[in-house]
Amino acid sequence: xxxxxxxxxxxxxxxxxxxxxxRRYLRESKQWDEHLKQTQRFILNxxxxxxxxxxxxxxxxxxxDVPVVELLNHSQELHLFDAVHPKQVVHKYKxxxxxVFVKKDLSFGLIHEATRCKNSKEFMSxxxxxxxxAQFTGYDWVISVNLLNQLDNLxxxxxxxxxxxxxxxxxxxxxxxxxxxxxSLPKGKSCLISDWTEVSEELTTGVVxxxxxxxxxxxxxxxxxxxxxxxxxxxxxxxxxxxxxxVRAYKF
Length: 252
What we know:
With 252 residues, the protein is of the alpha/beta class. The protein has a single domain, classed as Rossmann fold, CATH 3.40.50. It is 42% helix and 25% strand. The chain contains seven helices and eight strands. It has helices at 3-47, 68-73, 87-93, 110-116, 120-129, 148-160, 167-184, and strands at 52-58, 75-82, 99-103, 141-145, 190-202, 208-212, 225-232, 241-251. Strands 1, 2, 3, 4, 5, 6, 7 and 8 form an eight-stranded mixed β-sheet that branches. Helix 1 (3-47) runs antiparallel to helix 4 and helix 6 (148-160) packs antiparallel against helix 7 (167-184). The longest helix has 45 residues, at 3-47. The protein is globular, with a radius of gyration of 18 Å. Mean pLDDT is 93; it is low at 1-5.
């Protein structure tokens, strides 16, 4: 099929995912609020006592976890990066001259490669030759907010619809995507918040299991703050299961 069809499908997938996030938030707001407040507090502590020329937020989405008003007070310009911005958010802030919406694929072009390549071998070759670079050096502070684990999820889901990969290959793709994202953040003026581990409690048996979400090892030696995000209590993310994410927040 034509690449425009895939690009349309990907954009629609982004929109569907965003709508799904809002629906889940409306169901789980009491459980989510502590995680959202923790995220906002961590971001503001990183910026405490400072005023910047330009601040970037990567993965801005619905801005549920982003302290927009405070960030605008800490910066002359606030740039919000996402592949697709919810229309409601754009409408709410369109009159604010300090706030800029930036549409950007934050996967270093791998979404494009996934639409261009004709088979899994060609994609893995493109992945191997990808040269990561620091994309955000022009900013005084960069915030990656609940994005790290999402970058590879959409890519893997799209790739599975076209090609077959081994589990080892999928994990390699995830690690490279996550490594590239971390390496794109300018050192000494960045913070990153992400879900790191998925904890599933099977409610009929009481069995608890954990699933790795982050495959990058680049931050393993760094100090971090951690908390639990009670993600789904209505058993709609996984049947008969309560889902909690272990979150990590880094300043580096």
